[in-house]
Amino acid sequence: MTTQFSKKQTILLLLTIFAVSINMRPAITSIGPMLDTIRDDLALTNAQVSLLTALPVFCMGLFASFAPVLNRKIGLTRSMFLMLIIIGGMTVLRGFYSTYAALLVSAILIGIGIAVIGPLLSAMIKQFFPDRATSVIGVYTFGMGVGATLGAGLTAVFFRWTGSYPFALSIWASLALVGIFFCAISLRGNVRLKQTETPAANGAVRISPWKQKKAWLFLVFFGLQASSFFCVITWVVPIATDSGMTLVAASGVLSLMTGIQIVLNLIFPIVYERFPKRKLWLLFFLTMGLISIGLLSTGNWTLMWISAIFMSLPLAGLFPITLLFPLDATETAEDTNAWTAMMQTGGYIMAGFVPLIIALVYDVTGNHAYTLWIFAVLFICMIGLTFLVGEREQRVG
């Protein structure tokens, strides 16, 4: 870790990264277990209710490039506070207004908040922990895994206890208060991510990541892995209930999947630091994902529980590796911010389409076999792209 911080400051920064990142998934993953309930209550089609998870992902792509702009205009601290307030406020809104329009508005604004926070956290890690970025990414992904698991696993429990899906969706606003608290005590003053010298000052010309082939490969791979994550999180419960499972049991399958993911989210980045062969890891995770899809397709309840264990490996392992792509390829926090913003902009736009396509196909066919085929295509495409992305890249600055 960097030497500019005391031990107390370092711990506070790590807790802040965790407390902020835990807010980046519950508002999305909590929809999956309630998908059928919301659809039936509001008389929606599968495509309409799927927009509640697709729209945040679209926005996470469309607005990721706002992160560097907000850092320059109002600074890191104010940007974090503003985005956490938006996420928390819109999540609370779901408890008071359960109309479809209100759910759509909240989905859009929550997506914007997540979009800005993601690149800022990556750049924070690059700036504050330049020598241990790989390990600290584990804290970031661990927080996201915890948030995803809480939203996916406990929303159905809250619904069963209260009989109110608006309450079950809105309870996750409490996590925003935790994030705001830790930002307040660790990011004192209006912190800004460091800006590099201008080209005129150092004679260098910065090349936009949008003009670099490697950045585009990162973008496509990120889009495929994000698509697979949101498709699995959104549709595993409906697939399981379609096979005859109860809602609570199906949510348990998802909870097992994301629960194992939590632990692995913390472990894998540390392992990557010691065994940095990116290609081998990617091929291993993607193979496990294909095995899981095969087990899900059987409709056998026991095998579906086992499939959750296999699927937890790519869910946990792919995201931190894609976060490391820009960190490996860049020298400065500003460049990391720009590359991450580009990767997430295009990648999340891609990822917003796929769950919606699944919903449209299911509306037409009424058969989740097509859903599983789409899952498989995503993993096969990533296997092909792995040979182009390859190992750690030569850095640019």
Automatic annotation (TrEMBL):
Keywords: Membrane, Transmembrane, Transmembrane helix, Transport. Residues 11-394 form the Major facilitator superfamily (MFS) profile domain. Pfam families: MFS_1. The chain crosses the membrane at residues 45-67, 79-97, 103-125, 137-159, 165-187, 216-241, 247-268, 280-297, 303-325, 346-364, 370-390. It comes from the Bacteria. It is a multi-pass membrane protein. It is found in: Cell membrane. This is MFS transporter. It comes from Sporosarcina quadrami. The lineage of its organism: Bacteria, Bacillati, Bacillota, Bacilli, Bacillales.
